[in-house]
Amino acid sequence: MSSPTTPRSTRSKRGRDSEASSPASSKSATPSRRSARGTGSNPTTPSRRSTRGTPAKEDIVSSPPSQRRRVDTSPLAQMPTSPPTGAPKDLDTSLFSSPGASNKGATGTSDIDLSSPLNYGTPSSRGTPRTPGGGGTPIRPRSDIRSDRKLRTVPVGSDNLDASKATSEVSSEVNAGPQLVIWGTDVVVSHCKEKFAQFVQRFIDHEVAEDERMEGMDIEEPYYLQKLEEISLIGEPYLNFNCEHLRQFDPDLYRQLVCYPQEVIPTFDMAVNELFFSRHQDVQLPHQIQVRPYNCERTKNMRSLNPEDIDQLITISGMVIRTSTLMPEMREAFFKCYVCQNTVSVEIDRGRIAEPTLCQNCNTNHSFGLVHNRSQFTDKQQVKLQESPEDMPPGQTPHTVSVYAHSDLVDKVSPGDRITITGIYRATPLRANPRQSNVKSVYRTHIDVVHYRKMDVHRLRQESNEEEENVVRYTEERVKELQELSKKPDIYERLAHAIAPSIYENEDIKKGILLQLFGGTRKDFTNSGRGKFRSELNVLLCGDPGTSKSQLLQYVHNLVPRGTYTSGKGSSAVGLTAYITKDPETNQLVLQTGALVLSDNGVCCIDEFDKMNDSTRSVLHEVMEQQTLSIAKAGIICSLNARTSVLAAANPVESQWNKNKTIIENIMLPHTLLSRFDLIFLILDPQDELFDRRLANHLVSLYYQSAEQQEEEFIQMSLLRDYLSYAKQYIHPTISEDAGQAFIQAYVDMRKIGSGRGQVSAYPRQLESLIRLAEAHARMRFSQVVEVSDVEEARRLHREALKQAAVDPSTGKIDISILTTGISGAARKRRAELAQTVKKLIQEKGKVPTLKYSKMFDETRERSDALITKEMFNEALQDLQDDSYILRTGNVIRILE
Amino acid sequence: MPGLDDWLNSPLDIIQGLYSHHGQDFSPKVKEYFEKRLSDRNALSWVPSLNDTPLHDLKPNSLVKFRCMIQDMFDPEFFLSAYETVDTKTGESFMKNGQYKDIAQCLPHQKINLDSPRNVTGDRQTLYCVPIPGEAQWCKESFHSASRAKVVPSSSSKQVRCKRGLEDDEQDMEVRSSEAMDVAAAAAATSSGLQPDSAEAKRPRTDGVEAQLNSPSINLNFPLSEETGPACLVKIYENGDSYKVNDIVEFVGVLSIDPAMANFKEESSEHALLQDQAMDMEEESVHHPPPSLVPRLHAITAYRLQHCNPHLPVEIEDVTNKDFVSSVLQEAQSLRSHIVSVLELALFGDALAVEYLLCHLISSVYARRDVVALGKFCLNLSGCPRSSSFPQSLYQLIQELTTKSYMLPMSLENMNTLSFSPKKDYTANRLNSGILQLAERTHLFLDETALEPGQLDANGVKNLTALGNVINWQKVEYDFNFHHQDFHCNIIPIILSEGKSLLPSDCHVPLQLVTPLDKIEESFSAIGSYLTPALLTKIRTYLGLVQLLNYSIAEDVQKSLEEDFVSMRRQDANAMKVDDFHSLLVLARLLSLSYGQTELTRAMWNKAKTLEQERKCRLSAQ
User: Fold this and answer.
1) pLDDT tens digits, one per residue of A867-879
2) What is the architecture of the domain spanning A312-454?
3) Which of B304, B334, B349 is the last residue of a domain?
4) The pLDDT of residue A463 is above 80
5) Which of A82, B379, B388, B404 is most solvent-facing, going by the fewest CB within 10 Å?
6) Which of B278, B371, B574 sits opposite A551 (nearest CB)?
């Protein structure tokens, strides 16, 4: 067998998909069969036919491939090939395997170092047309990990490393020859390969993240073997692997991967392909499996990138702001001699084509011309990534970085996507002007992406859960800190206090807002036909002007990552929902989303809710219960998700709250909308001396606060923010048996209150509110179970809010019907009484066919002790009319019967 | 001054020397060396300033300074921090320093070895800096006259013309009308040669406009379109993260105007194969404008400026300036009465409005409690006569007194067409500036009397909301297309309106005219003669200083304030709400400061209460 430096492969130029790299076993492959296949499948490149062969060593472990190959129509080779330690024996194969020989067929191969096993799969290997044994699977070069410099390997010693030899049956021959160390690194190719193969075979991950799961996987089995299984079924030849797993498995290999990605990734590729084709011998893939690492630990903020990261594997997150159109990038130029029609292919090296000057066939100088449609191109796309708004230090503008996506990663992202990319950081020097000796000393930098991980990929899916979105990773210390915080007995008060500390007291309101921020658990019973239940809590604050409602809203808006703030005065239905605009440049119609859609999964703060016009408000009906938003505009009909909590503030109609009126009368909002709020709070000026004193103290202290205190507060705010998002991400409380009973009891109690008076005092909507509140409270405690105590607090808060909002001023009692029907039970009773009075009056009149309206009104007023307004009288008449007792036409009342 | 010329004219030689001596970690030494030279503020006056020296009079690679506001921050760039040069004749190689320059240079017989393993890659930050928006003319002139840099202009008159010529009509008009003051100010300045400057101002106006029209100008992205002066790309080598957008900084560094930097396009086409330039084209032209228009400055040191008042020391809280501060404060009382009488002339003799206007002039956001900005004091003067020269005249007065100001007539056209909030342009990858991108403590003079009934379009509504946000929360929402980001600001807005303004305000004062309206011109000319140059300087110093003072409330005063609040609420809870108490506290603070007192006294508190009472009376009387 030849030395390990024998190139294992030769090149294929075009039509890789059809041109199968033939099994190159010396035993099985016969020239005649191979050429026949070649011609059939790839008639355009007759000259390439002979270059398909790859020297490969017969795999000892797997069953003799020759038989199978003979059976299959498209012969699939199944030998995992190690760096060719075996030399081809017959003339045919050796011809393909030695560079000299292959150059006969395709002249002009450049001086790429074919001796390195790393040429495998990298563009510098110029399209090695071979997968290890994968008969039907062509090799596609990876442009994402192209190296600018040529790889050089240095043989170090020649003793075998037997220690690891037995570990992997597949790659057991790897160490047969002298070791190869990639020049300039400490990467030993054979070790690297073997270790990675072991990693794939053995690594078991017990905590698989949500988006890494696949169907029918068994977490007790090696994770990546299952992945390979999946590849064999689905046929997407990409193996994404989590660098964190590798780090747990072999920190040293991980370090090598991070430091020398462009050398190590191809090695991984090799290992995986060998493994794959040994396990799934008859699978045909579009091209060889490419390994895509992600989540490497060096996850960086865009700001912390520095020259040390050049040529290393980095993972950074950000938002896509621009994508270019697809750029075909020439990978291999095809030249033809004008004189003798001799053709030469030249690979692009660092962006340049070394145009052949001398035709070796006819010895003519400068006779070559480029043939465009026979050159090879790969897809490429430039993407601009901007750091995500959360990473932006206050007061600075965001940084951007250029990213190049290659081949099938092109068009995988679109502007606005939040993604985490893993790629190799590159710096290209600006070329010196050959006429000038001075050089511009600035580099151009970009990232060659190898993996995209979309953060909100699931956002559009209906069944999405919060934890899949916006995956924020917390450091261990932070998690610990949060956990400890959640254990504190007074956590509820603490957190409530942390909300808008500059606003004095109003504890219950802050608690309400706090629970709103946590939200209930999202429930989906679509499968059982009951639809979805809203998990977001809606809160309405009403009260006197100047009671810092706006300030609370502003605070919440600043606190939550996806919050929007609008004022009822300024927002139209259009601004809240979505609208269509025409791009002035392209004349394209663009769907622009408004505040409600923008705050999907956030909080939409609406100030001056009462000033909003009716048509705008009507939009909110759908949003606040169904959590969707339907648009039918300019030919676009769609339903957008708007799973947003609404925090609204309203002022009373008469600038001050009238205690003698119900809430409906005070803020003049339709009850249909009011009943959609889980909590309605009144913020009133308390007018109490003790309160005033403490308030004054609080206010004055605002004005001489030191800078340190401010710092402290800032930390509190960020802590609160983390606490909230952590809870939303990881805590999904379910209702315990006891709590369920408590809910039932609470609901029954609520119903009972009114039943004595023949009124309905609670509706299922109130029960739903209670459940949401209790869930939010449990979530706040970082508890996965809703307990009785949560129900109690939910009830207390609900009652507090009701006490303020749903009190019937005429009776002083809480009356839920104010919120559900717009009038209180007592008012309804009064109306019925009045109708009776009027009826009596009419009966007293005897047999008169008609009565005058104004006269009746005056008489009724005389009869009654209480003041009767025209409206009340009209309502009473209406009631009678509904009973078909009278018929009113204009000013005449006709008595029926 | 021996030795002076060396570090001024050829700083790069000194830097190379330090590099050869100290090796790669020489940057602290460079900073140390130059800071030592500049430790005396006096020495700084020898450094020519980009602000007032035309670019063609400055030597490339010399030391210059630039007083500016950071408008945008570009991405960090990697560069050759040290490189190897090889002598083509002898084959010897040297290491050269690549910091503080754009071009890696070598002598004709040398070659740069780009592949050398000894080359070091460094990274630096690029800041896009513009002259301080709305900086008063008197500030500029005063800085200019204080400069002792020996720049020999090629032809002085041409230079002056060029500098002034770019100013637009509006500014020229006010130069003319407030000529009396202007000349006086110029006379006060020590340097000669300023007098002809301002006298000449009117004439070259027209050619300036022409010049603007003719040049297919690169948008220099100034927040205020009237602004003149060079924009500059400042490269910083350290503490990149400590700079914020809208900071005022004075950079001292090496000027780089090598024309080679402009020909980016030509060069890039060379390897267009590798990097498709289609998407970068626009960005390149914005990020690498011709250095003749936007010079590069490689900052060696930077002075963060709290203010741009030439009469104040840079560091007010510094111990060395204690005497200065106390001397000004001693005079505070008398200066205050001077300025009160000036303002009284301007505000038709309305004493109450004068008090509020004075407080407004020295207000500034000094702290933030969650979303609340403390210390803001937006004033709404209503009852201003419509279509008179009053707003214009008042603005000119304010311009004379303050360092940074901008007048915005809120006409429908302005509201609908101007862009107020900065917006990110992703094609060019830069932040397009807006009027509200202003430095700290800029006075924003809103003239609502210019507003006519009519249709506000979407942009107009957005602009109005932006103004509302500035007034209420002291924040500006920058538009990054995919998201909006709030940036805190510290802008001091005043609104002149006929009735109550449609914008919110902290304090609404209806004007009560004591002197008749037609006396306006007389009043303002009287002001002109009242403000002697010496007095003007003192008033400017006073106003600038008290704005920056620290303020405290003693324990016992706090107690009595609380008592007061409780008792006032007992009397009438509706007359004293939380918001009223807030504004009282702010007013008391500003009043105290205006008297030069850094601690609140009972007397001041009572004065503030009386003022508020009087104002409320006036409001309810309306």
Assistant:
1) 677 777 777 777 7
2) Beta Barrel (2.40)
3) B304
4) no
5) B388
6) B371
**Contact at CB, A501 and B370, closer than 8 angstroms:** yes
A504-528+697-807 fold: Rossmann fold (3.40.50)
Q: Which has more confidence, A275 or A176?
A: A275
User: What are the residues facing A400 on neighbouring strands?
Assistant: A386
Partner-chain contact A696 B561, CB within 8 Å: yes
Domain that holds residue B14: 4-304
Question: Nearest residue on chain B to A691, judged by CA atoms?
Answer: B566
CA–CA gap between residue B140 and residue B229 (Å, rounded): 11
At residue B187, φ and ψ (nearest 5 deg) are -65, -35
Q: Model pTM greater than 0.90? A: no
Note whether residue B309 is domain-resident.
no
- Count A/B contacts: CB-CB distance under 8 Å: 217
Residue contact A692–B73, C-beta within 8 A:
no
Instruction: Spell out a b/e string for B572-598, using b for 16 or more CB atoms within 10 Å of the CB, else e.
Output: eeeebbbebbbbbbbbbbbbbbbbbbe
Quote the tokens at residue A199.
Answer: 């990693």
Q: Which of B12, B69, B71, B78 to mutate to test the interface with A (most CBs of A within 10 A)?
A: B78
CB B370 to CB A324 under 8 A?
no
At A702, which amino acid appears? L
Q: Which residues of A touch B104 (CB under 8 A)?
A: 438-441
CA-CA distance, A810 to A797, in Å (whole number)?
24
Is the model more confident about A744 or about A501?
A744
Residue of chain B whose Cα is closest to the Cα of A392: B485
Cβ(A272)–Cβ(A323) under 8 Å?
A: no
Which residues in chain B come in under a pLDDT of 50?
1-4, 154-216, 264-276
Same domain, B581 and B538: no
Contact B371 A699 (CB under 8 A): no
All CATH 3.30.1640.10 domain ranges of chain A, comma separated, are 178-294
pLDDT computed for residue A112 by the predictor = 37
Picking from A352, A438, A684, A702 by the largest number of B CB atoms within 10 A of its own CB, the best residue to mutate is A438
Q: Which residue is closest to A318 within chain B, CA to CA?
A: B482
- pLDDT at position A28, please? 37
> Could you tell me which residue, A777 or A147, shows the higher pLDDT?
A777
- Interchain pair B372, A330: CB under 8 A: no
- A556: which 2 tokens? 């919440």
pLDDT tens-digit profile of A110-168?
333 333 444 443 333 333 344 444 455 666 666 666 644 444 455 554 443 333 333 33
**CB of A361 within 8 A of CB of A342?**
yes
Question: Whole-angstrom Cα distance, residue B619 to residue B622?
Answer: 5
Nearest residue in A to B114, CA atom: A429
Question: Is B566's Cβ below 8 Å from some Cβ in A?
Answer: yes
Q: Indicate yes or no: CB of A396 within 8 angstroms of CB of B241.
A: yes
Nearest CA-CA distance, residue B80 and chain A, Å: 5
- Assess whether pLDDT exceeds 60 at residue A57: no
Instruction: Tell me the two tokens of residue A272.
Output: 């995986």
Output the pLDDT for position B492. 92
| pLDDT tens digits along A359-405 | 877 877 888 888 888 888 888 888 888 887 777 777 788 888 888 88
Arithmetic mean of pLDDT, A572-592: 60
Task: Find tokens 């207000």 and name the residue.
Answer: B363
